[in-house]
Automatic annotation (TrEMBL), chain A:
Localisation: Cell outer membrane
CDD domains attached to this UniProt entry: SusD
Family label: Belongs to the SusD family.
Pfam family, one: SusD-like_3
Keywords: Cell outer membrane, Membrane, Signal
Principal location class: membrane
CC terms in the record's Gene Ontology section: cell outer membrane
Name recorded for this polypeptide: RagB/SusD domain-containing protein
SusD-like N-terminal domain boundaries: 81-235
Domain RagB/SusD: 372-501
Signal peptide limits: 1-21
From TrEMBL, chain B:
Annotated signal sequence range: 1-20
Descriptive protein name: TonB-linked SusC/RagA family outer membrane protein
Membrane association type: Multi-pass membrane protein
Subcellular location: Cell outer membrane
Main location class: membrane
UniProt organism field: Algoriphagus boseongensis
Domain of life: Bacteria
Family named by the database record: Belongs to the TonB-dependent receptor family.
SUPFAM superfamilies reported for this sequence: Carboxypeptidase regulatory domain-like, Porins
Keywords linked to the UniProt accession: Cell outer membrane, Membrane, Signal, Transmembrane, Transmembrane beta strand, Transport
Cellular component, GO annotation: cell outer membrane
Residue ranges constituting the TonB-dependent receptor plug domain according to the UniProt record: 114-232
Length: 501, 1014
């Protein structure tokens, strides 16, 4: 018994010694992460944190695909092939086949990271004034871009607000403070701000970005790209003077060029489109979206333009009869045998943009189709292209449209005809509604497969007239707006769902 | 383990022979089973502590003091016999085997106990029960063997994952895996294979297992503290046995076969189906469009009439893609073991080779193992022991473990349109495949390659020092080391490899787990009525895991298949992670005359995984037992041979979360334009602590008619509080969720086990064992008075959470098709018919967790012949099967093949009552712009099944016969696995986990085997 007691005692002693050492024995620190407290205290960390906010734009749910291909599928741009079955529901405007929850999630994550950067500016040790200005300006530009993308998707656009009078279909939750603690994460339950409040915040951020930024390459925000984005935001808001003013500023900048003729087509074949004022950069092979959901794969079954027989992506979403009509596109056999896809091309009219369409291949189920080729792996690896967010050409179309709305019809017509000349088209002589329709038609042609059309229809409250399937989506249909992710509505008593969901 | 005990007992008794008196009795102890001598049997003079042990040949010699006239012969696993000496000097006895297991010793937490004294809910599965089953990991072999233990294979990958749930599902986001312990070494059974599933438990040759004990109630498991919430499975491997070296050779070989092929439409049948769908959709060129969908539209089609086009469709051939890629596979197993030793040292050595192919070539499993168990009695006080398991296995990987990948044979072979030839006429692969599955999966399967390797070393060193006869100190140091390696090559000749000109991916993953356990064992008996024993211990576990992986693209030709030939590195990444755990524990056992039993245990555990404010937890337990059979009024009973009431209550913890889940971190990621990014990855929760499990268990052990009927009945109420829930965060706040201790789950159930000897007459014996479990699983509460989890409404108060905590089925109820129009209908929340069900119309519809399950085993033996028929059953699971869901679309969304039974049920005529809608094509206007035909409960299936899991016919040759050729034993057998399944199930097989899409189904196995001892 004595020995037993001794043993117990010694074990207890060893135990208490070990217990004392417990806290250190149980201390294991991660090696590939750092504590969130003070993570952004250095200039290098600030740069790295900002990179992540840019990188989120690459998501399939944002500029990786959906803001271009999915929104065009919702509109009247194309038809689906059923090759992989993707975008069929969206093209059919089926309920819930719309912008997805991941778009909301990724955008708000980007906004939170931008907010944390803005909140953390004062805590960076050893930062120069120029660095501080750049971080703040870029973070604010990105925050504005995410908010603008969210509000144009989830809400009506100020120029055409449908009022069913049933539920609040305001803007979107507007948060401008970063969340990094669990308290804040648990307790903040933001309601939908009004549409005006959201646009006002976007204006404020873009004005700050304009003031704070210079330019360090079109893959980053610049003063000129802030002006260009502001021009578009103003156009959506119906703030026509502002749209003209900012378009003029952007056009005067040395960021991006407006191209014409074959240079315009070649611009689409270059890794960086010279027209870009701001583009989302895909720099590494691992950033490729891949064969299923990349823009290239969505639009064409071709792997490249040099050998049409090589199996590429799916070619799920192709121009419909309307778009084919714009450019006089019809299949054209160039040689024999007909089974060789390289022996096929399309007929084209004088519009230089017709060069951006050709026949695909017979690898996929739907067979050889006429496809759009704006995205052809120009980054140097498969299924990755830098995605232009704002091309400088848009500024002419923004200004023409805004001038029309300001009753400056002659300025609008002049600008439109000048633009048409850049694309190989003859001038028109139009006034009134016909002139506006022509400006919007030109916008349709210019930005087909770039994701503008859905919102251009939406901001004028126009119905979506589909050719294939031949059904229409009226502006009063609830499916104009996507559902807000149900988890957000369920978890936030202050957040109202969109009508119909 | 019992051999170790035996050894101790022998030594103890051997030293006790110090008396010199009277007569010497000699003899031999044999077993009635084989007539061979029993080494190590105990011979005791009744009423004294005088005894001896038999030698290697079963012989003994004992000095019996005057006045004593009865000898007691006993051996573990054999029935004890008392023999009156009378005037004899030679007494030979034959001991019968104890067919009913109550005499056995059960391994419990940090010790052993006679089964009669166990007061917790512990199930024991002997190694013999699972011997020679062609299963790669022992967890799979536990299916149906023990009440309350639910086992489901994830798929038919040899060496693949197995889903094991002890007493339901106790956690939503933390793990639901039990703690596996092999020879005192706590394993990490998390699989991290990148290219297939590599079950870490497959490192151990199941035939090396002596016994498996499953600690089910919290009180039994509580001594394992923070790791024990989901139960504990203790595996004891075979140990050396004193005696001359005994060799055992074991071999079996056979075949695996698919259990089922899906009956899909042939080429012309699919044409007709699709053509009619076009007609229904108002299409004016149904034949041409269908042929175009199938890639068979002639270029001159505009010159052909509809009738001519129709004829082309009707003439389309049919190719059986399933039988091309699925089929029988080989399996074989060889092993040799030798055990023996003298009175100081015993050893057990074994080596094994196992090979098994799945029904989808080239997916297979190949393993080699080496095992050493050594025990040495250094002196009267010190025993040292070591157990080493070395193992390597490699698996040819499938295209994907699951998923609707075009190149995946498991997905595409049943879904590809059957008119597509597999080969061209010249024997080359046909690469022009019509339909959405535009890849020749036979080609893809042939050209791709990949291998996953798992090298494992699990071992320990144990020293036991007898401080006093009743006090010993045991020191264990153990290691669980695993290296995972894998590579996978997407051949540039396949569509997935063509775009990138080949892709090679590689993985390396090291896991090192170190454990040490120091325990003091003490026992004392007071007045021969108060028996007291105690354990005190300390344990420390440290685990680190590290890995690198990468991929390269751009290969010169397909012959270059390793990553160094890649032109472009596509990705390269790595990780490091680790955690530590430390605990003190103690247990006190008390019994009064083996009649009233009590055990109290406690453990104090700390883990690095939890928040700074909440790292330590206390896990107490109490178990009480009343062995009624020891009471006087039952002691003499002939009919009641065992009766014990048990009650237990205990607290255990669950720490199966990420190593750094409590920390607020910024991690690397979000690189942009060639420069590195960082982003916030998790929110800090300084208060994050254990998920606690309490189980109240009431049990009854019974035995009747000389233990010809034995078994147990348990009822339990298991509550999990402070769930480690990933509490959703609003995305607008920049995060998805945070690990938090909120909410409560309940599993309550009843378990019943019975084993009977139905007939034991004239050498014919029929044994039956049956077990039944019924478990009700439900969420008791969430947080903030929420009725359901915002991010997953399937997690709802009052509803089960499903096998993996993913939630109950929460769907719109399908109402069949409108008999007038053939359009699919659902019920809205007000029970009105709707064509467009909304999220608000969803109702709860059970879960994928079976509520009733168990097993039934029958063994017949007669003169060396034996027949074993083992059934398992499951009832009450409801789930979707992704593969079936794709096929249930009947080709209306994508140009996939369809099941004949589904197509036959398609609505065609007004008034027809059916559940399959009218066939339409994708762009058929408003009708297809409603909800998909698989929406809601339309695609839910019942997963009930009864399966003849094992059927074995064996013959053991008479020992006297085989001894002539130098063998001690010889047995041959034929065995079949999964030979018959009763299930009303339209997919491949109801036993799987996950989405069910493109998964390799379980197989039937046939084997022939031979066991030789010499």
């Amino acid at each position: 018994m004595k020995i037993f007691n001794k043993a117990v005692l010694s074990l207890a002693l060893v135990g208490s010694f070990l217990m004392g050492a417990c806290d250190s024995a149980l201390q294991v620190d991660p090696r590939q992460s750092i504590d969130a407290n003070g993570a952004l205290n250095t200039p290098d960390a600030m740069d790295a944190a900002l990179n992540s906010v840019y990188a989120r734009l690459r998501s399939v749910r944002n500029y990786g695909r959906d803001l271009l291909a999915l929104s065009d599928a919702l509109a009247d741009v194309g038809q689906t092939t059923s090759n992989s079955g993707r975008l069929i529901g969206e093209n059919n405007n089926q309920p819930n086949a719309h912008f997805q929850a991941g778009f909301w999630q990724n955008s708000y994550f980007g906004i939170n990271e931008a907010n944390l950067i803005i909140d953390g500016l004062s805590g960076v040790e050893g930062a120069s004034a120029a660095q501080l200005a750049r971080w703040e300006g870029e973070a604010k530009f990105l925050r504005a871009l995410y908010y603008f993308d969210l509000v144009k998707v989830y809400s009506y656009i100020p120029t055409a607000i449908y009022q069913p009078g049933v539920v609040d279909q305001g803007g979107i939750p507007l948060v401008t403070e970063g969340v990094i603690t669990s308290d804040a994460a648990f307790n903040r339950q933001p309601a939908r701000a009004t549409i005006d409040e959201v646009y006002a915040q976007i204006y404020t951020d873009l004005e700050d970005a304009k003031r704070l930024l210079t330019s360090r390459g079109v893959q980053y925000a610049s003063s000129a790209s802030a002006s260009a984005l502001l021009s578009r935001v103003a156009l959506y808001k119906g703030d026509w003077n502002k749209a003209v003013e900012e378009a003029t500023t952007a056009l005067a900048s040395n960021v991006g060029v407006v191209l014409s003729g074959s240079a315009y087509v070649n611009g689409w074949r270059a890794p960086v489109n010279p027209e870009s004022m701001f583009e989302v950069r895909f720099a590494l092979a691992e950033e490729s979206i891949g064969v299923n959901e990349s823009l290239q794969s969505s639009y064409t079954a071709l792997l490249n333009l040099t050998n049409k027989n090589s199996q590429g992506g799916w070619g799920d979403f192709i121009p419909n009869a309307t778009v084919r009509g714009f450019f006089g596109l019809a299949p054209l056999q160039l040689g024999s045998p007909a089974s060789d896809n390289n022996n096929w091309d399309v007929t084209r009219n004088s519009d230089i943009r017709a060069q951006l369409y050709t026949t695909g291949n017979t690898v996929r189920g739907a067979g050889r189709q006429i496809e759009n080729t704006k995205f052809m792996s120009k980054s140097g690896f498969a299924y990755a292209d830098n995605v232009p967010v704002i091309r400088k050409s848009e500024m002419h179309l923004n200004r023409a449209e805004a001038n029309y709305q300001l009753k400056n019809e002659s300025a609008a017509l002049t600008e439109l005809n000048a633009f048409k000349a850049l694309r190989g088209l003859t001038p028109v002589t139009l006034t009134g509604q016909a002139l506006l329709d022509e400006i919007l038609l030109e916008r349709f042609k210019e930005f087909a497969f770039e994701g503008h059309r859905w919102f251009d229809l939406k901001r004028y409250g126009k119905p979506v007239i589909k050719t294939t399937p031949a059904v229409n989506l009226q502006f009063d249909d609830f499916k104009i707006l996507p559902p807000i992710p149900q988890r957000e509505v369920d978890g936030n008593p202050n957040l109202n769902q969109n009508r119909g969901y | 383990m019992r051999k170790v005990l035996l050894l101790g007992l022998m030594l103890f008794l051997g030293s006790a022979i110090a008396f010199a008196q009277s007569r010497v009795i000699t003899g031999i102890v044999t077993s009635t089973e084989d007539g061979m001598g029993v080494p190590g049997a105990t011979v005791l003079v009744k009423g004294t502590t005088i005894g001896t042990a038999t030698d290697i040949d079963g012989k003994y010699s004992i000095t019996v003091p005057a006045g004593n006239n009865v000898l007691v012969f006993s051996f573990v696993g054999l029935l004890s016999r008392e023999v009156t000496i009378g005037s004899r000097t030679t007494i030979d006895v034959a001991l019968e085997s104890d067919v009913t297991a109550l005499g056995e010793v059960i391994v419990t937490g940090y010790g052993t106990q006679p089964k009669r004294e166990v007061t917790g809910a512990v199930s024991s599965v002997k190694g013999e029960a699972i011997q020679n089953l062609p299963l790669q990991s022992f967890d799979r072999a536990l299916q149906g063997r023990a009440a309350g233990v639910q086992v489901r294979s994830s798929n038919g990958l040899p060496g693949g994952a197995v889903n094991i749930r002890i007493r339901g599902v106790g956690s939503i986001n933390a793990g639901n895996e039990p703690l596996f312990i092999v020879d005192g070494v706590q394993l990490n059974n998390q699989s991290n294979a990148a290219f297939t599933q590599s079950n870490p438990l497959a490192f151990l040759n199941p035939n090396d297992i002596e016994s498996m004990e499953i600690l089910k109630d919290a009180a039994s498991a509580a001594i394992y503290g923070s790791q024990a919430a989901n139960g504990v499975v203790i595996i004891t491997t075979k140990k050396g046995k004193q005696g001359k070296a005994k060799f055992e050779f074991n071999a079996f070989a056979g075949e695996t076969q698919p259990m089922k092929y899906l009956d899909v439409l042939g080429g012309s049948e699919w044409f007709e189906m699709r053509r009619d769908a076009y007609i229904n959709s108002g299409n004016t060129l149904p034949e041409a469009n269908t042929l175009s969908n199938m890639g068979r539209l002639p270029s001159n089609w505009q010159q052909l009439s509809r009738e001519e086009l129709n004829q082309i469709g009707l003439d389309l051939p049919t190719y059986d893609w399933q039988r091309e890629v699925m089929g029988s596979g080989r399996l074989q197993n060889y092993e040799l073991s030798v055990s023996g030793g003298d009175d100081k040292t015993t050893f057990f050595l074994s080596g094994s080779y196992n090979y098994q192919e799945s029904s989808f070539k080239p997916v297979d499993f190949e393993r080699g193992t080496v095992r050493i168990a050594l025990s040495h009695q250094a002196n009267s006080k010190l025993n040292i022991e070591t157990n080493m398991n070395l193992s390597t296995f490699q698996q040819n990987v499938p295209f994907a473990v699951s998923g609707s990948f075009l190149g995946s044979p498991a997905f595409s072979s049943s879904a590809i349109l059957a008119h597509n030839p597999i080969y061209n006429e010249d024997g080359t692969f046909n690469t022009s495949i019509g339909g959405v599955l535009g890849q020749n999966v036979v080609l893809v399967n042939e050209y791709n390659s990949g291998l996953q390797r798992t090298n494992t070393a699990v071992g320990n060193m144990i020293g036991t020092y007898k401080i006093l006869p009743n006090l010993s100190f045991r020191s264990l140091f153990g290691l669980d080391y695993r290296l995972l390696q894998g590579d996978s090559y997407r051949d540039p000749r396949t569509p997935d490899g063509a775009g990138v000109r080949g892709r090679s991916s590689v993985q390396q993953d090291w896991r090192t787990r170190f454990i040490t356990t120091q325990t003091l064992n003490w026992n004392k008996s007071y007045n021969n009525v108060h028996n007291l024993s105690a354990i005190l211990g300390f344990e420390f576990v440290s685990e680190t895991r590290e890995g690198i992986s990468g991929a390269g693209i751009g290969f010169p030709t397909f012959q270059f298949r390793t990553i160094q030939s890649a032109a472009t590195p596509e990705s390269i990444t790595g990780f490091w992670t680790g955690y530590r755990r430390m605990g003190f524990f103690g247990s006190v056992n008390y019994d009064y005359k083996k009649k009233y039993l009590a055990t109290v245990t406690a453990r104090y555990d700390g883990s690095s995984r939890f928040g700074e404010n909440n790292r330590y937890g206390l896990f107490p337990s109490i178990r009480l037992g009343w062995s009624i059979v020891e009471e006087d009024f039952l002691k003499e009973s002939n009919s009641v041979s065992e009766l014990k009431l048990r009650a237990s209550y205990g607290l255990t913890g669950n720490d199966q979360i990420g190593n750094f889940d409590a920390r607020g971190l910024y991690g690397g990621g979000g690189n942009y334009s060639g420069s590195a990014g960082i982003l916030p990855t998790s929110l800090a929760n300084l208060n994050l602590g254990w998920e606690t499990n309490t189980t109240l268990n009431l049990g009854l052990d019974y035995g009747f008619f000389g233990n010809r009927v034995t078994g147990s009945l348990d009822v339990f109420d298991r509550r999990t509080k402070d769930l480690l829930l990933n509490q959703p965060i609003l995305w607008t706040n920049g995060f998805s969720d945070i690990a938090n201790n909120v909410g409560e789950l309940q599993n309550k159930g009843i378990e019943f086990e019975v084993t009977t000897v139905n007939i034991d007459k004239g050498g014919f014996r029929w044994n039956t064992s049956f077990n039944f479990s019924k478990i009700k699983n439900q969420v008791v509460s969430l947080y903030d008075d929420l009725e359901f989890l915002p991010a997953n409404p399937g997690i709802a108060v009052g509803q089960p959470v499903g096998r993996d905590g993913t939630g109950a089925n929460f769907v719109q109820e399908y109402a069949g098709v409108n008999p007038a129009t053939g359009r699919p209908m659902w019920y809205d929340i007000n029970r009105n018919i709707t064509y467009l069900p909304l999220a608000a119309d969803r109702i709860y519809y059970g879960s994928n967790l079976a509520t009733i399950f168990g097993g039934l085993n029958n063994t017949f033996s007669f003169k060396g012949f034996e027949l074993t028929a083992f059934f398992v059953y499951e009832y009450g699971a409801v789930f979707t099967d992704g593969q079936y869901s794709f096929l249930r679309e009947n080709g209306t969304r994508l140009t996939l093949n369809a099941l004949r039974e589904v197509n036959d049920r398609s609505w065609t005529t007004p008034g027809q009552i059916t559940d399959i809608p009218r066939n339409l094509t994708t762009n058929a206007g408003n009708e297809t712009r409603g909800a998909s035909r698989n929406t809601g409960s339309a695609s839910l299936l019942k997963g009930d099944f009864i399966r003849l899991s094992q059927l074995t016919v064996g013959y053991s040759f008479q020992p006297s016969l085989v001894s002539k050729i130098g063998l001690s034993r010889a047995r041959v057998y034929l065995q079949g696995l999964n030979l018959w399944t009763y299930a009303d199930y339209p997919g491949y097989d109801p036993e799987f986990t996950g989405a069910g899409t493109g998964q390799i189904p379980l197989t039937k196995n046939y084997t022939f085997g031979i066991q030789i001892g010499f």
